Amino acid sequence: MSAEATDPATPEAAGRRRARPRLDVRGLRRIGRAALIGTAGRDGLPDALEHVAQVHRRHHPDAGLDILSKAYVLAESSHRGQMRKSGEPYITHPLAVTLILAELGAETTTLTASLLHDTVEDTEVTLDQVREQFGAEVSYLVDGVTKLEKVDYGAAAEPETFRKMLVATGNDVRVMSIKLADRLHNMRTLGVMRPEKQARIAKVTRDVLIPLAERLGVQALKTELEDLVFAILHPEEYATTRRLVDEHAGRPDPLAAIAARVRTTLDEAGIQARVLVRPRHFVSVHRVRMARGELTGADLGRLLVLVAEDADCYAVLGELHTCFTPVVSEFKDFIAAPKFNLYQSLHTAVTGESGQIAETLIRTHQMHRVAEAGVIALGNPYTPTDGPDAPEGERADPTRPGWLSRLLEWQRTTPDPDTFWTSLRDDLAQDLEITVFCAGGPPGGPADGTIGLPAGASCVDAAYARYGEAAHCCIGARVNGRLAALATVLHDGDSLHLLMAPDAPDTAAGPAPEWLDHARTPAARLAISRWLSRSAGQDTGEPAPQPPPPGPAASGHDTGAAAEITPAAVLAVADLPGASVRLAGCCTPVPPDNVTGFAVRGGTVTVHRALCPVVARMAATGRQPVGVRWRRAGRTNHGCRVTLLAEAFSRPHLLADLTEAIAAQGVAVVSAAVEPPHEQRVRHTYTLHLPNAAGLPSLMRAMREVPGVFDVLRAGRDRPAAALRP
């Protein structure tokens, strides 16, 4: 039950200077008085609901209000006698939440559910009663919000609480819209809580709810929540920022003068536009101050130009860049390439007569509504799934953001709430997203299409986003037509072709522990960790899968990456009781190499050559090595895998000659990759299966004797100066 009370000392004025939709304080007092009096207003509406109705009609002139009136009557009667700590009737809380959503343009169904969102949890009203009186859709939304309130926001409960929140959001983002408005009103009225409880609620709001608001595009809620959290968690910085804003409030506003010039310029050009000065919220001012040091009056806000059509946006841009001096580095086009949260706008900056720079946003009125209210501005995007075989209650959501679909997928396969919570926070902390065109794949796989990934994601992340668990069989990639390692970081607009092991049984392929170093997304990290745990026999109690028998030597097989790593239990043993052992794919150690090990997830020890660069990196981070030793010679006749790099001058038939030399040594080629020639030099990478590690020196000599080859190196060793790539 939300029972926080209003405290005049709280930073309620944190957003008053911002040009954002915000609950009118006078309106809140009005509905509070009306709730106490309980009189009926005009058109048969209760007085307490009249202000909500006026705001709602501004966005939806033809909206029917009878259902809102009916919902208010039920909510008021069911909450009657319940009081907030401020002494106000409890009904003021759902009214305030509904007013917040009405100001953002929410449709009638959302407002109806908002009025009722606490009734099932905190009163005698049942979900069946809500369904009977208001229909299945309102009942669905109320049930979604109710489920979020069933677990306390204590530290131990947070993971499961937000897991449920994400599930509810995935089914209908309007559930999260109501929850965000509910949290905003509670944050505004948090002052009577103990300081430690204020801090705890503020941290949860900062870590999860604010990023979710950002991803749903609800900037109006996000920015005010940021200011309220800022005031609670960083009171000194908040006070300093507020003082700076107050000091500038009594001075001439340079942005007002620039705005006047912009209006004149656009009028003369015949462009109908509305030009506003849009003050920054306190957190934004603080960030600018941290980045620039000294603040000017122009740093406290931005210009906002609103027009009717998309084409007008570019017309405004042309006039501004013609009549003012533009700051070219500040230009961004989010109309041609919208952000992942539906945001569209042109960003630029121009210099005024006094030399002050005015950051400027140019957008249509509809873009502005979506920029402020995100998914709330889209109305009701949900329609029942058509067809007689469609599951009951199934919904189609064409506006669901890609990140949300990904989170829903991996949360269903993550039974541990703590792991889910950590991964959720990591994912939400990533505020940029890229789009990659993904083509090709195994027979029967997904068709060509685009996938969304967080900035900094690698080919490993793309593989798991594309294929799920089937990505265990990925052995390489082509990025923009060129062979690339799975560790390659992708960029927005890249074309990606993932290379999968053909017809590989489930036990014959899988990720190496090193893949975790390249995985940025929770989906990839969790899937890799599960596979490693299963391969160590920890999930089912079964022994770890054994390596497949070596295949025949391949000629010209261009796969682009190293293949599956041998489990190595037959080759090496670690000084860690019960641990399984795996050979590292980065340096592929073989007897009698000097080796060391590091414990990774799933109770596995990864074995590296002592000179492998990864060993130095792990040691530098404080990772403790684990002693590893090779088994006695009589017990190491099971063969091994090794990765070799052949540096050569480019010539015809080089690949065939090298493959023939390898086959002559009785060695099988597991995979091979050839990089494009560079300055007449070329590098071949081979992953090979040797019958016996003792044959490695003779194999390397045989490869060096191939005409044109000037060096053969073990993978994982520092390159000499003569190497192909400097």
Automatic annotation (TrEMBL):
Pathway(s) the chain acts in: Purine metabolism
Q: What is one process in the GO biological process aspect for this record?
A: guanosine tetraphosphate metabolic process
Which keywords does this Swiss-Prot/TrEMBL entry list? Answer: Kinase, Transferase
Quote one Gene Ontology molecular function term: kinase activity
**Which parts of this chain are annotated as the region Disordered?**
1-21, 378-400, 536-559
One GO cellular component term: plasma membrane
Name the Gene3D superfamilies on file: 3.10.20.30, 3.30.70.260, Beta Polymerase, domain 2 (3.30.460.10), Hypothetical protein af1432 (1.10.3210.10)
Q: Does the keyword Lyase apply?
A: no
Concerning InterPro entries, the annotation shows: ACT-like_dom_sf, ACT_dom, Beta-grasp_dom_sf, HD/PDEase_dom, HD_domain, NT_sf, RelA_SpoT, TGS
- Could you tell me which SMART domains the record lists for this protein? HDc, RelA_SpoT
Q: In terms of domain of life, where is this protein from?
A: Bacteria
Q: Where is the composition biased (Low complexity)?
A: 1-13
Residue span(s) of domain ACT: 643-717
HD domain: which residues? 90-187
Instruction: Report the family membership.
Output: Belongs to the RelA/SpoT family.
What is the official name of this protein in its record? Kinase
What species is this protein from? Answer: Streptomyces chattanoogensis
